[in-house]
Give the backbone structure.
Amino acid sequence: MYLLFILLFPLLLGSFLLIAKPAKAFGLALGGSIIELIISCILLCDANTGKLPTEFISNWIPEAGLKFALFVDGINGILILLTALLVPFIIGSTAGSEKANDAKYQGLILTMQAALMGAFLAKDAFLFYFFFEASLLPIYFIINLYGSENRTKISFKFFVYTLFGSLFLLIGLIYVYLRTPGNTPSADFETLYQTASVLSTKEQSLLFLAFFIAFAIKMPMFPFHTWQPDTYTVAPSQGTMLLSGIMLKMGTYGVIRMIVPMFPAGIANWGNWVIILSVIGVLYGSIIAIQQKDMKRLLAYSSFAHVGLMSAGMLTLSNEGIQGALYQMLSHGINIVGLFFIVEVIERRTQSRDLDQLGGITSASKVLSIGFIILSLGSVALPLTNGFVGEFLLLKSVFDYQLTIGIIAGITIILGAVYTLRMIQKSMFGNASKFSINFEDLTISEKLVIIPLCILVVLGGIFPTVVLNYSQPAVDLLSKWIK
Amino acid sequence: MSSILFIPLLPLIGFLINGLSFPKLSNPVAGIIGTIPPLAAFALSLQLFLQFDGNTQIVPLLDWISVGELSIPIAFQIDQLSLLMLLIITGVGTLIHVYSSAYMSHDEGFGKFFAFLNLFVFFMLLLVMGSGFVTLFIGWEGVGLCSYLLIGFWNKKNSYGDAARKAFIMNRIGDLGFLIGIFLLFQEFGTATYQEVFEAIKAGNGSNLGLIAFCLFIGAMGKSAQIPLFTWLPDAMAGPTPVSALIHAATMVTAGIYMVIRANVLFEMSPEVLHFVGWIGLATALLGAAIGLFQNDIKKVLAYSTVSQLGYMFMGLGASAYTASFFHVMTHAFFKALLFLGAGSVIHAMSDEQDIRKMGGLKSQLPITYITFLLGTIAIAGIPPFAGFFSKDEILAHLYHHDIVMWALAIVGSALTSFYMFRVFIVTFHGDFRGTQHQADHLHESPIAMTLPLIVLAVLSVIGGIINLPAFVGGNEFLAHWLNPILPEGSHEALEVHFASLEFLAPLAAAFIPAIFAIQLYGSKKAVPAADAEISGIQKIIYDKFYIDEAYNFLFVKPIQFLSQFFYSFIDFLIIDLLVESTGKFVKSSSNELRKLQSGNIGFYIFMMVAAIAIILAWTLKSWIF
């Protein structure tokens, strides 16, 4: 029941907020998201030790053999943790703004959380697909109703772009599903693994592409990324946090959960190209980020670069690559939400995100300076921050896969430092501009968002084994499918 | 065992207290909280050193990363090498903390400064105490971070921020090499722990050793400012002077030498890499010394001098003279820290003036600084019996037997060193005062907290040579015997040099003659280095540092900036996005066309229906017929 709870609770609370529009929406939403986090943590711990069931199965469309099946293992556990952990911060980040008590806004965030949880919890591929698509609705409205200028065009483009990709996923899914043995076909992941992995190389290669394009657009991966910088920039901060912190992980999760175990022959055929494309994306995104002036756009390209490394690592199919990608999903979520929040904090006070208009903020706020630096260090993967663990494992996996590609991917640690330090210097150091001259120190609620995130950055860098050991058994199981 | 953990823990605690409570603590309190950790760590290190029984001690700390077969622990290794490094770091570190408590006393970021210094000491200790390459890497990048924070300490000034970024980024270039070296180690040995790796190598396992050594050395080139990754170090002088002394002279920049000595088993298996190390060191030593000849910023001269001296250390490593190089690491820590702190004392007295052309005649006003700076100058110039003479001569003696050409060029570098150091010394302290009246009124000797470290370091610079005094002049070669267990056989022996030989006399000549020349030129004739506008010809090229920064800018920075714009404006917007948008437009326009079919005209619909049925029928008929 815990499984069902963490799916339905945010959905019900979110719907309540959307329909009843209570006045104290902020408190309700934040409290609810914290309850969700606590229950999720209990579920993850106890399901892991066997105290709680790891599955919830009920009929959905019995005629078609589709089940409403939820489960938790070491792999989706990381994503559930990520989703449950970040949403309280995302909701908390509205404190003090006019959106805090906007019931509609908070309701959309919570329904978004439910959809994301659903996608990560699903044990049935069609259920996954359902939530994968369903998550588009709340985020579409978040961008369309609360975004900045051009939001209609950009949110529409984002919507169509991702929908376009998912269609291929649907077609591919149906194809595999129809091939499952038995009287009624099944879309249970295990069944799909067994069915798909023995399909002919030609079938697998085509299916690989069909699945991959959906996930590649979601992540996004080069060259399917052009929806991303605009969308991240136009979306309200919380929308950007949801997109970059959690939603893009549906793409990377999809690769690990479905593509990796289902299409070994497909990966053998295309994996090399995808890894190369990913590494191109890593450098391409990093290089573009170097000259960006808009902090949000800069972070969008940096996020794009980070995700590229994840997808390269995963497709090496090595233990390090998959574990590294999982760990990096968690770290990247924490870091990017923190960084986008810092941009929001700066924009609230200066009405600007333009690096040329900022500067000299560091003397105005100690917590902001330290927080910005710690989160950035996580992002540039300094050892003893969470970012290092993932990046080290990912780079090692790519390096072990192929030396030259590994070295080229490694350039990211240099370029990452270039654009991140430039961002820090131009916003925080130097003399204050007319925009940043009267910069007020952070409020308590703002500190309460930044400080815990920074602590997580450091803890995640020192004690990664807690998480790595949690996901290890599931990854080992996955490795068996690969073989 | 527990005391071992306290050594890095104390500075970390100091960092946390000062970092979290800044700016609430008063300066004296923050200074004391900041100075106690390195002092206590020094006491603990000394105790460890005195009690050391010759057996390497491993202290496991944390099972850091474990994934599948990969397991990376964090553990400390206490042995001959790490103990000496501990003493240097905490010892010199303590002196510099004491000095800073006075030097920085008027700075509003006082507590923050001590927090950063403590954090640096923590990472530096981690670097030398780690029991494997990954722990080394953690410390390695950590000190890089502290270096970044401290170079850009006065971050209001954009050029300082630029210098800080440059240091971090250039180090990261080296770190990529280091990281690849670590990956290769894992591929070859499945571990990056020193003992396991070195035992495997000694047992004859592992291929690719040359490549691994080369990659690790790329890291060393970044951290220890060797060609081509040296240009960050002179810029790093933007940081407060105690930082230059601690990080950019005595400790962090020698991490590369530490690494090579630590991995001597690996490097010994790759003679061609050692050869490369030696020549890079030589080239850097000469380039640094040449640029140092005509610099007029007192800290810049010392910075290029550091680059050059680090080159000497690598030259020694290239000749497998590990003891000699480490000896030079130690004596250099003494005299270069001394010179930097002396320069700081001068800058302090001169109200932040750093140009030696605007100084002169300071010896009467700053007697302690004057004497100690002189002792440091003599030490670095290689004049016997000061510390620098013995350590540099030991490197030269090894070079003499290793490669006579390198030796000869190293002697030239020595001569340049002696000249530029005496030039700076004389122009700063002798002759007439050339500053403003305002500066003249404020000239004063520094307080005791600053002069005391100068005196201690000056004493060490004078007598430091006894650590490894060769047997033929009556020493006991302590360092060589001490390091013997961790070094390859034979490399530790101090070579005997005959007094009347070229080998002995040439370094002496290289030390004395340029010194006398500099004293003549700048002292007796009272020449003052020319103003910027009057510098011309080759001198101008050297003064402008051979335009290496400009070349890097042209070769790397500009192209990347261009690519960035090109990718963003052209590929992203014009190609990819246009493709996407036009797909969308195509769909939209075709749907516009198709929409016209839904005209609402029932007659048209019926017509279409009939037509469709006819087509389907025709299709079915076709299959019946054929």
